[in-house]
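Lab notebook, bench 4. We co-purified these components, and the gel suggests they stay together. Before we commit to crystallization screens, I want a quick structural picture of the whole thing.
Request: model the full complex, all chains together.
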Amino acid sequence: MAALTGLERVSGAAAERPPRAWWRGVVLLLAAAYFLIPLGTSFWYTVHTPTAGVSLSAYGELLTAEGFVRSLSLSLGLAVATIVLVLLLTLPAMLAVRLFAPGLRVVMEVLCTLPLIVPPITFVVGIGTALREGTDLLAPTPLWATLIAVQDPAFPVVLVLAYVVLVLPFVYRSLDAGLRTMDVRTLVEAARNLGASWPYVLVRVVVPNLRSALASASFLTLALVLGEYTVASLLGYEPFAVWIVTVSGSKGQLSVAVSILSLLLIWLLLLAVSTVFSREKGK
Amino acid sequence: MTRSRSSKGRLGALPLLVFFALVFGVPALVLVAGAFTAQGRPSLANLTQSLQGGYLTAMIGSVRLSAVVAVLGAVIGTLLAYAVVASRSRLLREAVLTASGVLANFGGVPLAFFWIATLGNSGVVSGLVGLPSGSLYTFWGLVVVYLYFSIPLMVLVMAPALDGLRPQWREAAANNGATAWHYWRFVGLPVLAPAMLGGVVLLFGSSFSAYATANAMVGTVVPLVTLKIASALTGDVLIGYENIAMALSLDMVVVAGLVMAIYLPLQRRTSRWLH
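Here is the predicted assembly.
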């Protein structure tokens, strides 16, 4: 039976091509419709109103909208702080593990994967409760002031701490990929034998070799922090993503306009990541 | 020598370990402790309550939504990835993969507003096709919206796996008298299976933990566990609901943990074929 069908199909192989191409065309067309129509209609929604006709006023309104500059600058500030902190924590740890304690490597890998298992919303529940109980518990000690300070609404450090945990898996993976491409041990030992100090080795030998991995880790962190909603909104802060939801109630067009701009922003950030990576490959 | 080496290793890794213990470990412990505490005493009451009534409905709703999105997204994503890879057009390939990279990362609040502008009650397309009011704010509405980031995610997972299928394998199979069906049944699909299963699990996880999109879109119309946790945390002022939120969170972590326990070994198996 199998042999029979086999013979039939072999002889028909040449005729098989056109219908397959047709099938692919349909798939691509449907996919294009599904992905492009919401993009197009969202743009139309922002520029067209039945009363005023076509105008770009929703985009112009953006800069003057109440809270736009404040929430965006808060998000950018949080992103920069997160990038600096996560790199300062992971890079020395990963180098130390590679150079001196290969046994710790599995521990590192597990730790840096764990945040992927925990949905952000459950993480918020844990942080929120820990903060509340911590404030009660530590009220008589000087640590209490620290706990209050990290929750300052002007610059909530607690969000930076949470974001570092959330981006840890992605940062770990980019840095790990970067470290794989270089012979860390030989480079560092050569530099040390030539009399370089540890800070010098880190800044002048390791970091330049990791430039593209560091850049992509930073861009990914930036994209994640700018779009983060769950943690910030449930802890009661108003960075960019939370502000969009707040404003959507009164200004529908504006919120869709911001959504289009944030898609463009993600696109630019990822473009930057891929250019950095392809430049590295071309070397 | 070895001692100083390993102590240096600990020194470099110490800040990260301390940070992790404080920022991840403490909340995790508080969460577990809170989930097993009711009225100040150790108890299983929260966990039992979190698996009953409206909470159980929400958990089932989340699992069902994630499963439907994962399976549909995996099938459509694989077909799309295959259509792109098989076309051998560099331009098409680059365009689709770049777009997938952007859209796979495009969840959250903006996604909800795109679809509200398109298929929402005053949306542009819903008016044209005469969609009944409220259709987007349903289970299947959410499926349609979640596929917007799930399909691209699947394309990103499957494109390298499909590239790993060597043309020689197909030729060898054909020379041995295999049909296209035989080829896919005995060569193609077994090679792709780990990647596909891994993709399904990844899609499940990302839909399961999604909160921002659902919150901005449906509020509490569709029962989902993330929405229940949020309302137990913020909406209800009654004391004791926080512990329910913690119990629900623990349930979610268990489900997500199971999912990752399937995913990580699969990912390792997939990467074997990519090189």
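Chain B has a mean pLDDT of 83. Worth comparing against the SEC data before the next meeting. Residues 57-240 of chain B form a domain with the MetI-like fold fold (CATH 1.10.3720.10).
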